[in-house]
Amino acid sequence: HFFAVAENGGSSSCSSSASDQECSRDSDAIGESSRSRGPTLRQLERQRRCDAQEDEERHIYTQEDWERLRRLYRDQGGTTVEYPEGEVMSVAPPGFVPPMVARQTADGKGRGIFATRNITKGSMTYGGKDNYAFFSTGEAFRRFVGALSDSEACDVMMWAWPQVNMGRDFETLIVVLLDSNSLQNHASKNGGHGGLKGGQVANTGCPRGMECGMFDEYALIDIREGDEFLCDYDDFFDADLWEEFGL
Question: Where is the composition biased (Basic and acidic residues) (predicted)?
Answer without folding.
Answer: 43-56
